[in-house]
User: What shape does this take?
Amino acid sequence: MSNEAKPFLKWAGGKRRLLNQFEDHYPEELRTGKIKKYVEPFLGGGAVFFGLQSRYKFKKVVLNDINHELMLSYKVVQNNIEELISILKPIEENFNKMNFESQKVEYYRIRKEYNIEKLKIDKNEPADLVGNVAKFIFLNKTCFNGLYRLNKKGMFNVPFGRYIRPRIFDEPKLRAVNKALKNVIIMCEDYRNVEKYVDIDENTFLYIDPPYRPLPESVSFTSYSKEDFLENDQIELSNWFKYLDEMGAYLMLSNSDPTNTDPKDRFFEEHYAGFKIDKVSAGRIINSRVNGRRKITELVIKNYPK
Assistant: This one.
């Protein structure tokens, strides 16, 4: 349906292509209405949340991500939709009237302004939050491959992409997202801080989508904030998964499948021993020195059915 909320930003690791496969992996208690609370500690583009909220009724939803610019965007869409749209409309109209060279100049002008304002926000100084989120959305839709990357000074430094009349924003989509975010708790904290919202009495379901453990023979994206997510972080996450399991939450976690490149890699079998580990087709291609170019799988790890 056209009025269903969908991701409004390009984001690394998005799950839109996996949603149909995920239907077979959600807990049965979600379909029967027993689950009343949904928590997502690594939100990213939010495809899973938007897919679930369009079909199921939750009493409470908690969305978190460590990326400040990302979560600020969600908050502005949630609370300042009219002002945001009024800023985005002329940005898109003016940009798409320009020739390529003028667009390139405009991109770097807006990127510079965005970084100046971003520095104020990072320092908790007075700043135009809504205006800068509009610039963030513009950059997201016009930069190279929709990447999010910061330099050592914390400045956005992704170069200009080559798009013909890019769709910088979709007003019906943004309004649908605004509606979907009504009464949603939006956080920008360490992922473990969401555990205070895990309530056994309300049968909490968590979908956990961390930065993936890199595959040895691929270029894997593991950093979407100033902090990397390394091997020790993956192990800490597995321990947190076990802790939430003991609390009685329903858990579903996504990660890379190391057997795509190394059949002997048993990392997830070791650290998620006792949990159900399934595979889904990622629909992406990996270049492996051993097997050549082929589609890869990803893991779905669950603590249900018991």
Notes: The mean pLDDT is 91. The longest strand covers residues 276-288. Residues 2 and 232 are 42 Å apart (CA to CA).
